[in-house]
Amino acid sequence: MALGERLRHARDSLGLTLSVAEQQTGVGTSTLSDFENGKREPKLAQLKALADAYKRPLSFFLSEEPIQADIVLWRHKPESPFVEEIQVRLQTLAEQYHNLELWCGEHEPCALPLALKPAAAEFHYRDAAKLAGDFRRSFGLGERPGQSLLRVLEEICKVKIFHLGFEPTGSAACCLSDRLGAAILLNSKHVRWRRNFDLAHELFHLLTWNVFRSNTTQNSVQASPREEKLATCFARNLLMPQEPFRDAVELEKGEHGGLRFAQLFEIARQFDVSVEAVLWQLGFVYNIDSKKIQRYSEQLQGQTSFWDTREHDDPPARPLRFEALAIQALREGAMSVGRFAEYVGVSRREAMQIIEQEAEADAEIEVAHS
Amino acid sequence: MPKLKLLILDANVVIRLHELNLWQTVTAKCEVYLSRIVIDDEVKYYHGRDRDQLVDLSPDVQAGRLHVFDVEMDDIKRFQDRFDPTYVERLDPGEAESLAYMLRSKEEYLISSADSIVYKVLGNLNMAEQGISLEEILQKIGHGLADSPWQYSKAFREKWTLEGQRDAITGLGDQSAR
């Protein structure tokens, strides 16, 4: 695709008019129009200004390959214009992560065991529950999967997991492509136990991508209500596997066979999920009427801040492995200081300070044979 | 002492010279060229003694102490065509602009950087003699470079230039001969 078409595509992706683009870049609307129509080409400095405004890397505009229209699947999609910016940001981060893997010679394909059956119309709750159990056992997540799910997905399954803050709405998204692999985006403004559930939910979509997405061609889609319910069922069963969950409940039950709010929160802390998720899993495992569960959930709303003593954390935007690869690439002369600064989100001067602290040569630590 | 001619500096070197309080000395004793992107986007501030200080190069440009260049898309495409396409993404845009300018020019510019990848590219393109470290620049104009990180040293330049030359032998990087 020619440069002009790429410029128009990038501007359209963000929903920007030519006037707004002019305000952000200082390049006049008639000049922008000439660039997009191929009548003139920008100088590199102008192209850089446009790339910054359109939140794309320069290399995007210099490529002649067809643009990959990756599908981004949202759980709760943010409103426009936020959603367009966030999607471009997600794709840029995934592209950067992919570049780092290539530059460091550490590219490994996505290791998720993708499901191919049953077909979408025949996929039921029992299949979602089974998929959760199989995944938990295959990857050794143990009896409290919420404690380790993020690390396992990042380090073993090579899923690229990012955290961005989006307001006022929106929760999580995922995408899967042959070139960039699997990526999940979580909302850093949400508390960790909610993000855990979103993570498990998005994992279901990735595992069943070829079941539910095989005929989809839109750039950004939303799963059907049925698929969403299956994803929720998967997430509950993954994070609160039935046997360990039942054991935890039995241990916490009082003399009268019930659970008080404090005990619900205790179980939620153990499994690192929300109290609401615990309630719904209780309903499922102990066959409690859903109207009752709904009532308990409404009663809980006023109690959460009193009983739930967990503090909100601040997750990093980029995974630890991303940052480690960036430092490796910088040390091996595979990327510039300025590019490193952009990738890890620091200033150029801060990046210079990081590399200036590096030793002249890597010292090797001798490991003696036992 | 004759001026050191045709000297392209990348952003890291410009910043470091400000921190060493040697920027005016270098622009007085050398014919300095900076890419448009380095001036507009990449040189923002340096670490002053007490706090960060903004860098404003416009007085130097207006007074003719600096020459500014920019490149057309054809130049950058020509540069990109010489390499694995990911090389443009690995470089700062200012570095890509500077290297593309050097490739298209009939004059033999010298380029100074604190980035290993710039010297790798020079080694890869068989242009090793057109790299110069900040240490070497300061020696040529009668100054030393005490207590600076080794990214500004001759040894750093030589190491990474050699890496680029090794890559060329093994077929990495420059694709023009293929």
Would you kindly provide a written description of the structure presented here, covering whatever features stand out?
The complex is a heterodimer of chains A (370) and B (178). By secondary structure, chain A is of the alpha/beta class. Helix content of chain A is 53%, strand content 6%. In chain A, strands 2-4-3-1-5 form a five-stranded mixed beta sheet, with helices on both faces. In chain A, helix 6 crosses helix 17 and helix 13 crosses helix 14. Chain B is α/β, with parallel strands linked by helices and 178 residues long. Chain B has ten helices and six strands. In chain B, the strands form two sheets. In chain B, strands 5-2-1-6 form a four-stranded parallel beta sheet. In chain B, strand 3 and strand 4 form a beta hairpin. In chain B, helix 3 runs antiparallel to helix 7, helix 5 packs across helix 7 and helix 8 packs across helix 10. The longest helix of chain B is centred in the C-terminal third of the chain and has 16 residues. Chain B is globular. The mean pLDDT of chain B is 87.
**Widest beta sheet: strand line-up of chain A:** 2-4-3-1-5
Total strands of chain B = 6
Could you name the ranges of chain B where pLDDT drops below 50 across 5 or more consecutive residues? none
Average pLDDT level of chain A: 88
What's the average pLDDT of chain B?
A: 87
In terms of quaternary structure, the protein is heterodimer
Structural class of chain A: alpha/beta
Which word captures the global form of chain B? globular
Most extensive contact: A-B, 31 and 49 residues
Could you tell me the radius of gyration of chain B in angstroms? 16 Å
Order of helices and strands of chain A: HHHHHEHHHEEEHHEHHHHHHHHH
Q: What summary fits the major beta sheet of chain A?
A: 5 strands, mixed
Count of DSSP H/I helices of chain B: 10
Q: What proportion strand of chain B?
A: 5-15%
Q: Which sequence of SSEs, written as H and E, runs from N to C of chain B?
A: EHHEHEEHEHHHEHHH
Reported for the largest beta sheet of chain B, the result is: 4 strands, parallel
| Amount of beta strand of chain A | 5-15%
User: Can you tell me the residue ranges of chain A where pLDDT is under 50 for at least 5 consecutive residues?
Assistant: none
Helicity of chain B, as a percent range: 40-55%
**How far do the termini of chain A sit from each other?**
58 Å
